[in-house]
Amino acid sequence: MDKILIVDFGGQTAQLIARRIRDFGVYSDIVAPETNLSPNILSDVKGLIFSGSPWSVYEEGAPVVHPSAYESGLPILGICYGFHRMTTDFGGSVLGLAKKEYGRAALRFPKPSKLFDGVPEGFISWMSHGDSIAEVAEGFQITARSADHPAAAEDPEKRRYGLQFHPEVTHCEYGIKILENFVFGICGADKGWSMEGYLEEVSASIKKRVGDHPVLLLISGGVDSSVVAGVLLSALDPEKVHLMYIDTGLMRKGETEAVRKSLEALGATHLSIIDAGDRFLHALEGVDDPEEKRRIIGDLFVEVQKSDIVGKIDGDYFLAQGTLYTDLIESGKGVGKNAKVIKSHHNVRSPLIEAKRNAGMIIEPLDRLYKDEVRRLGRLIGLSESVVGRHPFPGPGLAVRILGAVDREKCRILREADAIFIEELHRRKLYDEIWQAFAVLLPIKSVGVTGDARRYGYVLALRAIVSHDGMTADVYPFDTKDLLEISSLITNSVSEIGRVVYDVSSKPPATIEWE
Ligand SMILES: Nc1ncnc2c1ncn2[C@@H]1O[C@H](COP(=O)(O)OP(=O)(O)OP(=O)(O)O)[C@@H](O)[C@H]1O
Ligand SMILES: O=c1[nH]c(=O)c2[nH+]cn([C@@H]3O[C@H](COP(=O)(O)O)[C@@H](O)[C@H]3O)c2[nH]1
Ligand SMILES: NC(=O)CC[C@H](N)C(=O)O
Ligand SMILES: [Mg+2]
């Protein structure tokens, strides 16, 4: 099978590049930059892509690439840091900018390029950089510019290409076309990858790893863990598969009952539903730091799981989770050691999970995939559209949507307000247009007037975004009427809330959740 290798300098979107290429039907894999690309690793590889990075090339300790990458003579596409890397490696220079470029940027093309075949003049790219090419490397010429900076350069003879923008993010117009031009036009790769093939491969590998051992799946009723349940129940003897749902007390209104019904429909023999609300709320008392909350929750998930499993499974068992690549990369756990921690997802960074992972006892069959790919896999294995189309809900639940310290009363207030918001989205037929929507309770109060009296109430933020994979997101452009009506429904029904605001930040620079 032809392959494209991504050299990961720790950028947030390295896996996203890989999945774009999988979408073309071409296999792609990720390697750390220090990897010696031996002939063995390079067999079937048709091209290399250098990813972005949180590092600047001129910083002490910035990642470098093993010389074998250049010696291979393969076509190379450098994206952002990858472009900076190639530029400095071949004698050009890179400088920090006083005014950084984040978000949309219009391009012009001084020179034609094979990379831009079929791409119209003047499209809108997506940038996320603080450094820029000051002088291109020897043999390179500039093929695109944004208002202020070089946006692309190439040495077509050596088949080396650099892009300052990110063609892999869905916000970049013609990004897919540019990657296709590289993979097919420049590298000449052939197709051989499919989701059906992926399903066969993970099923076979789970069977082989698990043997006769039982598997315990932590399941939330969300898309990811339901897909894992489907995969496990079909790959293994269902007698060996145990499903466990933990009610953390941080769930939404009516969630546990709804999940119970949908889990019963999956047809598992062993299903336990654990009420651990008191333990979670007690452990979170007075804790207001977001990373500390996440750590406590991550650890409690494992502790609750361990104490509840006694008497149900004897001996060694594998722990399965619906971890996605988004969870790993944001937690700083991508391939290699260069990615920064954006937030520690509860299912990744807990020491207890890490211990299980290091012991090779974790099964995470979706850990290379993104949400939209998981949804495709879910449809392939026949899950119902109501499960596959559900908005994501993070494991730490309402705890990361109540800013600051969490308590029972705040959970109740947020639960009521969030339920009104979501119900209205269904009623107005907006739910499926939106990728994720929820309410956030802010730790501030503001003054209002109700029935001629003063009201000193909480501020609630509404968040609704559109996205493909959770890596980048745009604010959902509500009709003003919808927002005004929903706001007044909430303030009229939840007396503790005095004011509603709408969050109008995209990702980046904001993340989707507030903590
Ligand atoms: N309440 C819960 N009980 C048991 N396991 C959970 C719970 N919440 C999360 N998990 C575990 O953590 C993993 C990651 O959570 P995450 O929210 O990303 O996925 P999900 O809940 O399966 O899907 P979705 O993103 O649609 O909410 C889940 O796949 C599941 O294994
Ligand atoms: O299971 C989870 N455990 C977590 O700790 C967690 N944090 C964020 N999310 C979800 O991940 C997606 C990207 O979120 P952010 O832009 O807020 O990082 C969004 O869909 C978030 O809801 C989590 N899911
Ligand atoms: N996205 C990137 O690769 C960023 C590269 C570098 N950290 C910069 O800010 O320019
Ligand atoms: Mg979830």
TrEMBL record:
Keywords: ATP-binding, Glutamine amidotransferase, GMP biosynthesis, Ligase, Nucleotide-binding, Purine biosynthesis. Pfam families: Asn_synthase, GATase, GMP_synt_C. Pathway: Purine metabolism; GMP biosynthesis; GMP from XMP (L-Gln route): step 1/1. ATP binds at residues 220-226. It is an enzyme of class 6 (ligase). It comes from the Bacteria. One of its GO terms (biological process) is asparagine biosynthetic process. GO terms for molecular function: asparagine synthase (glutamine-hydrolyzing) activity; ATP binding; GMP synthase activity. PROSITE patterns: GATASE_TYPE_1 (PS51273), GMPS_ATP_PPASE (PS51553). Its EC number is 6.3.5.2. Residues 193-390 form the GMPS ATP-PPase domain. SUPFAM superfamilies: Adenine nucleotide alpha hydrolases-like, Class I glutamine amidotransferase-like, GMP synthetase C-terminal dimerisation domain. One of its GO terms (cellular component) is cytosol. Catalyzes the synthesis of GMP from XMP. This is GMP synthase (glutamine-hydrolyzing).
